[in-house]
Amino acid sequence: MKYMATYDLMETMRNTNQWLGATAKSMASYPMFSLVPNPALQWLGAWGEVTERTFERIVAKPDWGLHSFTCADGRDHLINVETVLKRPFGDLIHFNVAGREPLKRKILLVAPMSGHYATLLRSTVRSLMRDAEVYITDWHNARDIPVSEGKFDIEDYTLYLVDFMRELGSDLHVIAVCQPAPLTLAATAYLAEQDPDAQPRSLTLIGGPIDPNANATDVTDFGHRVTMGQLQETAIQRVGFKHKGVGRKVYPGLLQLTSFMSMNSDRHSKAFSDQILRVAQGEAGDHDAHNRFYDEYLAVMDMPAEFYLSTVERIFKNGEIARNEFVVDGHKIDIGAITTVAVKTVEGAKDDISAPGQCIAALDLCTGLPDSKKASHVEPDAGHYGIFAGRSWRDNIRPLVLEFIDANCDAPNAKQAVRPVAKKPANKNTAAK
Known about the structure:
Elements lengths: L1 H27 L10 H19 L10 E3 L5 E10 L4 E8 L8 E5 L11 H8 L3 E7 L14 H15 L4 E5 L3 H14 L7 E5 L11 H8 L2 H8 L1 E2 L10 E3 L1 H11 L1 H16 L8 H9 L5 E2 H13 L9 E2 L2 E2 L9 E7 L12 H5 L8 E6 L10 H18 L6 H4 L16
Parallel strand pairs: 4-5, 4-6, 6-7, 7-13, 13-14
Antiparallel strand pairs: 1-2, 2-3, 3-5, 8-9, 9-10, 11-12
Helix pairs in contact: 1-2, 2-9, 3-13, 4-5
């Protein structure tokens, strides 16, 4: 019960701050106060507006906001978000551009389950829709999933990806962003061993911790520093009484958000104080740059406790993917079994979450894949977010990824499907660029 009480206490604090903001905003807008203009009231109202919006967004799932799309014919076509596969912990959805002939490229975006919703990749989706049929994994908020649906750990996550890839067929190109990169690599290897005909044509891994120890960051240091017992006691809570998942053990999104913001607390504090000033001066808008960013950044979801704990223990502490020792449902996966799926890694030179070297380690693990089907790219001056969104993604990385997809769009022939004799891992410095 103590874990449930803590969860409800956190929600009470969030709700109270939202109420205080709304109260301050409403009080400062009383018409009678206009008789005697007072700058303090303007500041109070501005503080209230920013505070209410901030704490309200934490529990709101953002909308995709993708309503129409201008195609090559010069006409605007509606975008329908369609569910292809519906599962308790996450769905496979398709952004269907109404009235447009299906495009040859078919891309599955594997979104992180790391505290934010899949809508964090909204700009990535929009940038790819012009040239491909885009599908994405839409993970659910654990607090809304009844306990009766059972557990969900990294093995279940991997099997979900296997089912999603099977559903979409072998003419598929997969792009995994950040946290799911090692599990997507494992899912591809699983298919290579168990169902070769369902393998995708290419796999692009963007900023993922394939080998977290290849280049240490604050994230990897934390993973090694804390014990699993400490995480159980300090990070895991039971969902409170007002949600469908009451009683389910989770890693609360609010805790994850707190850790995210503490890494750059000065920058976030300045952003909010500047926004209060803009609101007080009448210079802020509902969809200004601050609100566009923080409406998404503040919207967090709870993760199943099993998923969070198994990620820390098996991916970061034990390095099961990096050592090619990952087991799914009793089957030990051999990443070297990937022989026909082209693999590309993308890293940001200034990524402080998944530093350069962590993702490219995937190429060394693919011992059965010829060098001609391996590629890597390090984006200069790009941080973690920039390698899948923003200018670096749009101008440099996206064209390279599409070029890589087109170069590997043909089905492998029978000769290619034969696994070559094991050889020494490719040197990461000589991997194709």
